[in-house]
UniProtKB/TrEMBL annotation:
Domain of life: Eukaryota
Organism for this UniProt entry: Oopsacas minuta
Database matches in Pfam families: Alpha-mann_mid (PF09261), Glyco_hydro_38C (PF07748), Glyco_hydro_38N (PF01074)
Required cofactor(s): Zn(2+)
Entry EC no(s): 3.2.1.-
Swiss-Prot/TrEMBL catalytic activity: N(4)-{beta-D-GlcNAc-(1->2)-alpha-D-Man-(1->3)-[alpha-D-Man-(1->3)-[alpha-D-Man-(1->6)]-alpha-D-Man-(1->6)]-beta-D-Man-(1->4)-beta-D-GlcNAc-(1->4)-beta-D-GlcNAc}-L-asparaginyl-[protein] + 2 H2O = 2 alpha-D-mannopyranose + an N(4)-{beta-D-GlcNAc-(1->2)-alpha-D-Man-(1->3)-[alpha-D-Man-(1->6)]-beta-D-Man-(1->4)-beta-D-GlcNAc-(1->4)-beta-D-GlcNAc}-L-asparaginyl-[protein]
Protein name according to UniProt: Alpha-mannosidase
Annotated keywords: Disulfide bond, Glycosidase, Hydrolase, Membrane, Metal-binding, Transmembrane, Transmembrane helix, Zinc
GO cellular component, one term: Golgi membrane
Domain Glycoside hydrolase family 38 central positions: 489-569
Keyword Nucleus attached: no
GO molecular function, one term: mannosyl-oligosaccharide 1,3-1,6-alpha-mannosidase activity
Family the entry assigns: Belongs to the glycosyl hydrolase 38 family.
Length: 1123
């Protein structure tokens, strides 16, 4: 920015400050009283005129309709939440701000990236490895190779077929066959993972068949691994959805298989890259072992060289400590895939011959030229030694003489004859190998758990004997993104594919969470009214869980399969709306109402359409809107509702008249209406609570709302009786509030800078596009892969957008409409947390083929280290990233489930996203977020289609510039945390306030409700209050899941009100006190998914957290019936 302009803005800022001081010092609270002081008014108007002359672009008071007797202006600056001074707060900092850390031990995955050349050297038969050899003398009579063959079938709940079609045509048979084949011989084993399919099958079975299945699980022949509803994606998923889908599977298994059910292992062979969040969730659910497959082939090779494919996967905040409580013991498969050719050993040509489904005349063959042959007396010696040779080579990659061999593929064991072909031929081999002692190999059917138990036994012996071999088990931390399965084929496309449904997933997440919480609270008051609603919740949970599947939220299923997920999510959203409305009705005391008295604003009417606004008829009678907050802290936020008149006044829950702003109704892509209006006002809603606001109809001339002013550039005239409109004369536009000023270019309608009294940071927004590679058949972008041709170019037709600006008392907004994109930025003028960020909305309807559009933030931040940037993992933790040119553009994109940031010594620039998208930082000071993509070709990973079913989407983002006077320390570890402001912003974006429009005034109800007696401490969040199935009408049971996070204390707490946080008691939070308004009769600390009771360290009602943690408590409330 030019110096003269900066001076002008500074002058304007001082002038506005003077006005505010003048207003306040004279005690004027409203416009009416100002009128009686004409001298002051005159001088103010003089100042305002001067201001207008100085700069059109500086924020001005909007035009105001007359008669404002008692209007409540946004609160004057209240005392803000402050962190204690650093020198007195060691204890505070330790528990809230920094995680314990010490000397580094073990390995961070990011460090391996420094050492690996990523040059894809041809390793021979094991293409991505090396020619493996072994020393026969390693295997002895005393210490033979012990092989566990684990049969499995990978069942995608939707991909090429819908969930139901797969079940009906394939999975039902598979489950039938498993029961039969295992019952025939108790030596046989099988593992099963997807509870969603088991649920379908279970509903069709007679009791004796169910008993057979239960018996197989309980006698250890059939292991249910993970027991999640699905094998969830780990890149795009929010951690709370990961917990939900696991919870649903665990509760199902406990209810149907055994009340003592407890999975020991987790099975993750297909998710495209893996996250430590999942390992942590498994750990908290009591599952100690994990087997996983899809990790970058170069990382596998690196670990295999060091025999480190089995490790304790440790959470980043526990690295460098002796604390192993977050560890999950993990087995990583070394080879390319989980199919039989890639699991027996390094040579797929040989392994394929031991897939007995691939025997002529079966159509399935081996692509390496030699098919499987049935084992008979003539070939058994050669076959057995060929196979054992592969096993021994395979075994050299691990630290023990125990070997895990999985036997299966997608939808295997579909026919009885196929199942028998595998089991019978292997049993012949087993018999031969086990009886030929000189092979020094013991081979058997096994479950994952049997394998891990054997490894643990050997590991403990190594520890006891002080063997150096134990080194191979040292902990590893970090994540396994971005996955590449071959060459430079990075699976970074699916971070963005089908963003419409990724957004819908988050919408369902927030709806389901609120429905669970308010249902749980309402059921305490009124069990009879809640009948039927629990079933709605269950359907919604299961549909939401289904979409967490690694071909669901990833956007990698066939179009019609994706639409099936969409229909399920739509049904679930409607269910949740119903539950939220009915529960709120009960909690607000509308006892007499028979029917639902609310309409929920911004609801979806079809699975592929954006949420729709309700236009409230305010022209004929007073209307009421109830706002619902599902977070554990009070929220002050600006909301908008759509009305059809402007002669209005807005009143809060205590009858106070509050400031409101009228703007023309704005619909994407760029529609302004003069017959409908967006009414903005700031609301306050208690923790887990609801507040009722009244929209009062006023006679003409008695309105009490301010009207925004409109400005246009390169736009047809907008005729309005309500608004004044003007062209924009200046080439730069600024919006300002108490914290920041945001500057935009008129010609592009995009942000150029954010500044305050402390900082001046350039943030230039650009829209660019990568052209998907489609030239070479083998290197195409598709649903999974992102393979661009070269670097990004300016997105087409980004010149001369139509520009619209509105300025108001409460919110100012600038929108630019380009050919395929509308970009809006807003700044809120209240004193609240949301006023500390600039809000973006990107409407995009991508119809141009083979383009992948990004929003790039070019900032003046000098990214720390070697182009470090930070992205979140599942909304739970933050992972430091570094740009590596050796990975190409596609290998430098990462998942951004909620947040990404860059920082230098004083400034951090963060971008929050409401939905999961891909993100990269290819240059210092830049962040780029992929918005949508339209690769028309298949990328050869089995989907056999491109992704061209794009929908119009609106991506919501918040941009924070945070400045630390003391400096953001260069931590020598990779640990980084969002600030408290950032955490609160993220929670509010992920859990929007629900707007319940009352159909007609229902009398005798309360205007305010809060489910909590106290707000939670700052660093505690309610992940969920999940209702447990209703058993006894005198009791209401729910699972309270709490998450304690760590935040960066070097960044300011701007905008956080003093009373935001509850008691920061070092001893923990007393749950009884939190719920003292409710009839809480029992609290039990349990494992995450409630399968185990935990022994309380302290009184069971105290939730105490040493560091980052997620804990579950079973709460039992007495219902009104019990009284
Ligand atoms: Zn799969």
């Amino acid at each position: 920015m030019k110096y003269a302009k900066r001076v002008a803005i500074l002058a304007a800022f001082i002038t506005i400050s003077l006005i505010i001081i003048l207003y306040n010092s004279l005690g004027f609270k409203d416009y009416e009283s100002l009128k009686d002081h004409s001298d002051v008014e005159e001088s103010i108007s003089q100042i305002e005129m001067r201001l207008a002359n100085i700069r059109e672009s500086v924020h001005k008071s909007a035009s105001v309709l007359p008669n404002f007797p008692e209007i409540k202006r946004p609160d004057k600056p209240k005392e803000e939440f402050k962190l204690p001074a650093p020198d007195q707060t060691d204890k505070f900092l330790e528990t809230h701000c920094v995680s314990p850390r010490g000397e580094l031990s073990g390995t961070r995955i990011s460090e391996t990236y420094e050492e690996i050349a990523f040059n894809d050297i041809d390793g021979g038969v094991w293409k991505q490895g090396w020619p493996v050899t072994y020393d026969e003398s390693e295997y002895t009579d005393k210490d033979p190779l012990e092989v566990f063959i684990v049969p499995h079938s990978h069942n995608d709940p939707g991909w090429i077929k819908t969930f139901w079609d797969y079940y009906n045509s394939q999975t039902r048979n598979i489950l039938d066959n498993i029961v039969d084949i295992l019952t025939e011989n108790e030596q046989r084993r099988f593992i099963w993972a997807e509870i969603s399919y088991l649920d379908l099958w279970w509903k069709e079975q007679k009791e004796d068949r169910k008993n057979k299945f239960r018996k197989l699980v309980l006698n250890g022949q059939l292991e249910i691994s993970t027991a999640g509803w699905v094998m969830n994606d780990e890149a795009n998923t929010h951690y709370s959805s990961m917990i939900d889908q696991l919870f649903e599977g665990h509760q199902w298994t406990r209810d149907n298989i055994s009340p003592n059910f407890m999975p020991k292992t987790s099975w993750c062979i297909d998710p495209f890259g893996t996250s430590p969040t999942m390992a942590y969730i498994l750990n908290r659910a009591g599952i100690p072992y994990l087997a996983m497959q899809r990790v970058h082939y170069e990382v596998k090779k690196y670990l295999a060289r060091q025999k480190r494919l089995e490790f304790s996967w440790r959470q980043s905040w526990a690295v460098g400590t002796q604390d192993s409580s977050t560890d999950t013991f993990t087995h990583l498969f070394p080879f390319y895939s989980y199919d039989i050719p890639h699991t027996c050993g390094p040579d797929p040509k040989i392994c394929c011959q031991f897939d007995f489904k691939r025997m002529a005349p079966d159509r399935l063959t081996c692509p390496w030229g030699i098919n499987a042959r049935a084992i008979d007396n003539n070939n058994i010696q050669e076959r057995a030694s060929t196979l054992v040779d592969q096993y021994k080579k395979h075994s050299t990659l691990y630290g023990t003489n125990k070997l895990l061999i999985i036997l299966g593929d997608d939808f295997r064991y579909q026919t009885y004859s196929e199942a028998h072909a595998q089991f019978d031929n292997y049993e012949r081999l087993f018999q031969f190998i086990n009886s030929n002692k000189d092979m020094h190999t013991k081979i058997q059917w096994g479950t994952l758990n049997e394998y891990f138990q054997a490894v643990m036994k050997e590991k403990n012996q190594l520890i006891e004997s002080g063997s150096p071999k134990i080194e191979s088990f040292q902990p590893i931390s970090g994540d396994f993104f971005t996955y590449a399965d071959r060459r430079n084929h990075y699976w970074s496309g699916y971070y963005t594919s089908r963003p419409f449904y990724k957004e819908m997933d988050r919408d369902l997440r927030s709806h389901l969470r609120a429905a669970e919480i308010f249902y749980s609270l309402a059921r305490i008051q009124d069990t009879t009214r809640m009948e039927g609603m629990y079933d709605m919740l269950v359907t919604s949970r299961q549909n939401a869980a289904l979409f967490q599947h690694h071909d669901g939220v990833t956007g990698t299923a066939k179009t019609f399969v994706n639409n099936d997920y969409g229909e399920r999510m739509l049904t679930s959203l409607k269910n949740c709306e119903n539950v939220i409305s009915q529960s709120t009705q009960i909690l607000m005391g509308h006892h007499s109402a028979e029917n639902i008295i609310f309409d929920i604003d911004e609801h979806r009417v079809k699975q592929d359409g954006l949420p729709q606004r309700i236009t409230i008829d305010t022209g004929s009678e007073d209307r009421y809107v109830v706002f619902v907050n599902s977070l554990g802290h009070e929220r002050r936020e600006l909301v908008s509702i759509r009305v059809n008149s402007v002669q209005l006044a807005v009143f809060g829950p205590s009858g106070e008249n509050i400031l409101a702003q009228i703007s023309p109704a704005f619909d994407f892509p760029f529609q302004l209406r003069d017959d409908a209006f967006d009414l903005y006002f700031e609301i306050t809603v208690p923790p887990l609570g609801a507040s009722q606001y009244k929209i009062e109809r006023r006679e003409k001339g008695k309105s009490q709302v301010t009207v925004s002013k409109l400005y246009f550039h390169n736009h047809a005239e907008f005729k309005s009786n309500t608004f004044t409109t003007e062209p924009i004369s200046d080439s730069e536009i600024s919006f300002e509030n108490s914290y920041i000023t945001a500057t935009f270019t008129r010609n592009q309608a995009t942000l150029t800078a954010v500044h305050s009294s402390e900082f001046n940071t350039k943030v230039i927004i650009e829209f660019l596009t990568y052209i998907s590679n489609f030239n070479s058949r083998d290197d195409r972008s598709g649903a999974y892969l992102f393979i661009p041709i070269g670097s990004a170019k300016i997105f087409r037709d980004m010149n001369s957008p139509n520009v619209f600006v509105q300025r108001g008392e409460l919110i100012s907004k600038i929108c630019g409409r380009f050919l395929y994109l509308t970009h809006c930025s807003s700044l809120i003028h209240t004193k609240s947390i949301e006023a500390t960020s600039v809000q973006f909305e990107n409407y995009i309807n991508l119809i141009v083929d083979n383009e992948e559009v990004v929003m790039r933030l070019k900032t003046s931040v000098k990214s720390k280290g070697e182009n470090y940037f930070y992205t979140d993992l599942n909304g739970l933790t933050v992972q430091r990233r570094k740009y590596h040119s050796k990975l190409g553009i596609q290998g430098n994109f990462y998942p951004m489930p909620t947040l990404a940031y860059i920082e230098d010594i004083n400034t951090r620039v963060s971008i929050h996203s409401k939905q999961s998208l891909g993100v990269g930082s290819l240059e210092n000071g830049c962040i780029e977020v992929m918005l949508d993509r339209r690769p028309i070709y298949d990328d050869s990973r089995g989907l056999e289609q491109g992704v061209t079913d794009n929908k119009a989407i609106v991506g919501k983002f918040r941009l924070h510039v945070e400045y630390s006077q003391q400096g953001i320390k260069e931590a020598n570890s990779e640990l980084s945390f969002p600030s408290l402001v950032s955490q609160i912003t993220r929670e509010s974006l992920q859990n929007p306030i629900f707007k319940l429009v009352m159909k007609a005034k229902a009398l005798g109800a309360d205007s305010k409700y809060s489910g909590l007696s106290l707000p939670l401490p700052c660093d505690l969040q309610i992940v969920n209050i999940r209702a447990l199935s209703p058993q006894d009408p005198t009791k209401s049971e729910s699972a309270l899941i709490l998450h304690k996070f760590i935040y960066n204390c070097e960044l300011p707490t701007t905008g956080i009100p003093f009373n935001h946080c509850g008691n920061q008691d070092a001893d923990g939070v007393d749950i009884t006190k939190l719920f003292s308004k409710q009839r809480l009769v029992e609290i039990t600390h349990t494992s995450l998914t409630m399968l185990q009771e935990m022994k309380p360290k302290v009184k069971s009602s105290i939730a105490n957290f040493d560091s980052i943690d997620i804990k579950s408590y079973k709460l039992t409330f007495a219902t009104n019936i019990s009284q």
